[in-house]
Every structure is written in structure tokens, then in C-alpha cells.
Amino acid sequence: MREELPRLDTHPELRQRLLPYCRLQPGRVWQDPIAGHRVGVLDATEATAVHTLMQGAKATLLINDPPYNMRVGQAATPQLPQLALDEYLTFSRRWVENALAVIATDAHFYVWLGADVRNQFQPLPDFMLLLRQYPALQPRNFITLRNQRGYGTPHNWMWLRQELLHYIHGHPPFQVVYTDIPKILRGYYKQVNGQRRENLARSKSATLRPGNVWVDVQQVFYRMKENVPGCYAQKPLAAIERLVHSSSRPGDLLLDLFAHAGTTLLAGERLGRRVYTCDNDPVFAEIAIRRLEHYRATGETGWQTRTPFPEVDVGV
Ligand SMILES: C[S@@+](CC[C@H](N)C(=O)[O-])C[C@H]1O[C@@H](n2cnc3c(N)ncnc32)[C@H](O)[C@@H]1O
After folding, report:
1. Which residue from 23, 84, 274, 314 puts its CA 20 to 30 A from 293's CA?
2. Is 9 in the pocket of ligand 1 (CB under 6 A)?
3. Among 234, 258, 264, 287, which residue has the most ligand 1 atoms within 8 Å of its CB, making it the best to mutate?
4. How many Å lie between the centroid of ligand 1 and the Cα of residue 39?
5. Ligand 1 atom with least separation from CA of 281
């Protein structure tokens, strides 16, 4: 099975060919006529751009997945630049401050971030220290998702971790969403009078919380229906929907400043929330809009191996 559109960061020439098929020029915002979502081609580090997107509105749930400042996979391309750490922190400070300017008094603030094990876990710890400078944001959780490779394999080590930081602003409501995770793990066991006792009774409960290790969420790859060919950093819909369920209510406004494959947008659409989102690349803004339209037309959450740009012959 081969994806009809290769990763765009490894094919800059392909990206150029898709640009004429993108409906938005930089600086422009698409307004969804059906559910009121907005998608812009905007730079998250520019305050005026974020205000163009929000138009005075405040978001109660922010889910941001900025570039991680590292190469993803084996690719080393100009599309995934690696900044010096201080430059990356300047970039981070700018988008965080722009986000804080449009956050509701009571809101959840989630950030996906990478940690490069080969490079002092950069930039995750530096970003966490940066957030200490904003006392209005209080840490609530540090969530890790299932990893496919790593400890136990001498080769093919997973050098890139992706972690999910959860902060709160004010006192936002939180709705516990139950999961099957402890059932999968079969609970904990303990030794009682020298005998091993498994905590099976606990794992049969109907009210099991996800905790902070989400082993039930698979990273997206080409065999999954939700896969969006061309994208290189797509987040799992299941994870984002868990955030939307637990940290927002129907009708709430969600904000994602780094749209990419439009996963937050799709999650909001499926769960009855409005989403304002942007990407500074017109191709990803277009993909996000198309993914929403494709979902509305077919009920499919992605294209799996098919291309989101069927009108462009990419010749692979
Ligand atoms: C890690 S991806 C986001 C993945 C997304 N959560 C998903 O599930 O598809 C980061 C995205 O941020 C975009 N980006 C990079 N710098 C940006 C900036 N200054 N403003 C807005 N978007 C930016 C990139 O084009 C890329 O699509």
C-alpha cells in the first residue's frame, strides 16, 4: 500500500504544485457556512494574525501542536527547520502570548510537544520552563501516548517522544471520560502473604479513568482510515476527541493555531464544538478544510492512502 501523496516536507517541489489548488492566500480566513468554524492561513506568532482569526472571540479549549524543532522520521528537509534553542523559545513565547490574549477566563490549554532523546530531550523541558513565566497557566497533567518503538529494541530506537502537556487558566470545568485502559493493562498486582493477586475486580469497573499514560491511542499511520497523505505530524483523532470531551462542552469555541491535517477541526465538528484554526502554510489550511468537507460528504475521517488533491497528478 502506497500513499498517493508523499509527505510534503520531503517533497518541496510537490508542495509548490499544490499551491495553485489552495483556496486561501496568506492572511485570509475561510468561514465555514455550516457550523461556523474558521480556518486561516495565518502565522501564530503574529498578534494581528491571531486577532484576525478570533475577531474578539475567546476560546475555552486550546489545543496547540507547534512544530517540534526536530526532524520527524528519517527526513531532513528545509520544511522542518531546526532553529537554535533560543530562537525556538522566542517563537514559542510569541505564540503562547498570542494564545493567552484570546483565552477565556476559565479555559484548558493543551500543548503537544516533542522531546528529542538524542538532544537533551529538547525542546520539551525548555518549553515547560518557559511556561513557568506565565503564572496564569497552571500545570494540570503531563500525558504520554503509546509508543511503538523504544526500550527493548537495540536498534530502531524511538528517539522522538511526543508528549501532551495540560495546563489550566482559571477554573475550567472538567468532565471525566472513562476508558478501557486499565482493562487492557489488567490493573496492578500485589503480593499478599507471598501470593500474587491481580487486581482484576478493579479492571472490570465501568468507571476507569484514562490517567496519564494513554496506551489505547495508536499513532496515525497509512493503514488507518484517518490517515491524511501528505501530512507528517498528524495527531490521532481519538486523543484529540478525548480532550474535547473532557475539557469542553457542546457549543464551546476551540482554538488550534497549528492546524496541519485539521484534526482538532474534525474533532470539533464531530462533537458539536466550533473550531477556529490556522496554519501558516496554505497547503495545510486547504487540507484541513478539505478533510472537513470530505468528512461531511462521506463520513470518512481521512483518506487513508488516497490523496486529498485528486485533481493534481503527482506521478507517484
Ligand atoms: C505538528 S504540526 C500540527 C499537527 C496537527 N495537530 C494534526 O493533527 O494534524 C505543526 C503545523 O504547524 C504549522 N506551522 C509552523 N509554523 C507555524 C506558524 N508560525 N503559524 C502557524 N502554523 C505554523 C506547520 O505548517 C504544521 O502544519
Report:
1. 314
2. no
3. 258
4. 13
5. 25
Grade residue 188 by pLDDT with cuts at 50, 70 and 90: low
Q: What percent of the chain stands above pLDDT 70?
A: 89
Q: Mind listing the domains of the chain with CATH numbers?
A: 8-179+216-298 (3.40.50.150)
Cell (9 digits) for 234: 498528524
Query: Which of 41, 42, 260, 263 best tests ligand 1's pocket when mutated (most atoms within 8 Å of CB)?
Result: 260
pLDDT of residue 194: 85
What are 207-211's contacts with CB under 8 Å, separation 24+? 207/178, 208/178, 208/179, 208/180, 208/181, 208/182, 208/183, 209/176, 209/178, 209/179, 210/177, 210/178, 210/179, 210/181, 210/242, 211/181, 211/182
Region 13-36: mean pLDDT is 97
For ligand 1, is residue 280 a contact (CB within 6 Å)?
yes
